[in-house]
Amino acid sequence: MSSQLFRTKSLALLLEEMKGEQRLRRVLGPVALTSLGVGCIIGTGIFVLTGVAAHDKAGPALTLSFVMAGMACVFAALCYAEFASMVPVAGSAYTYAYATLGELIAWIIGWDLVLEYSVASATVAHGWSAYFRDFLGLLGIRVPPEWSGAPFDYAAGGEGFRLTGAYFDVPAVAIAVLVTIILVKGIRESASVNAAMVITKVAVVFFVIIVGAFYVNRDNWQPFAPFGYGGLFSSGEPKGMLAGAALVFFAYIGFDSVSTHAEEARNPQRDVPIGILVSLVLCTILYIAVALVLTGMVRYDQIDIHAPVSNAFIQRGITYGGYLISLGAMTGITSVLLVLMLSQPRVLLAMARDGLLPRSFFGAIHDRFRTPWKSTILTGIFVGTAAALIPLHILAELVNIGTLLAFVIVCAAVLVMRKTNPHAERPFRAPLFPWVPILGILFCLTLMFSLGWHNWLRLFVWLMIGMVIYVAYGRRHSVLSDEAQARAAARPKPGMPSHGIGI
Question: Helices 187-213 & 319-353, crossing angle to 10 degrees?
Answer without folding.
Answer: 150
